[in-house]
Amino acid sequence: MSDLFSIQFDKDAQLFRVSGELTLDSASAVMAETETLFDTKSELDIDLAGVSRADSASLALLITWMRQAKQSDKTISFRNLPNQMRAIAGASGLDEFLPIQ
C-alpha cells in the first residue's frame, strides 16, 4: 500500500473506499493494488469520498477500471466523486459515460 492512497473494502457497506491522492504520481501503484483486489467481487461499488487530490490520471483510472469490469463481466459504479474529478470529467465530456451514483 502506498502512503499516497489507500483502498479498503467495507464489508458492511459492500463497497470499496478509496482515499488519498489519485494522481499521476500514484496511478501505477493504484492500478497494481486494484488488479487483484477487485477480483474478489462481481459488483464493484467504489466510493471516492476520501480522495483528497485528483488530476486527469484519476479519470484514466476510472476508465481503466470500467474496461476491466466489462472484460470480466462485472458491474461497476462510482459514488461521491470529488469536485476536482467532476470538473475534469465535465470538461472532457466523460461525465456522461461514467456510471456515477
Automatic annotation (TrEMBL):
Q: InterPro entries per the record?
A: MlaB-like_STAS, MlaB_ABC_Transporter, STAS_dom, STAS_dom_sf
Chain segments annotated as coiled-coil in the UniProt record: none
Gene3D superfamilies, sorted:
STAS domain
Domain called STAS: residue spans: 15-101
Q: Which domain of life is it from?
A: Bacteria
Q: What is this protein called?
A: STAS domain, putative
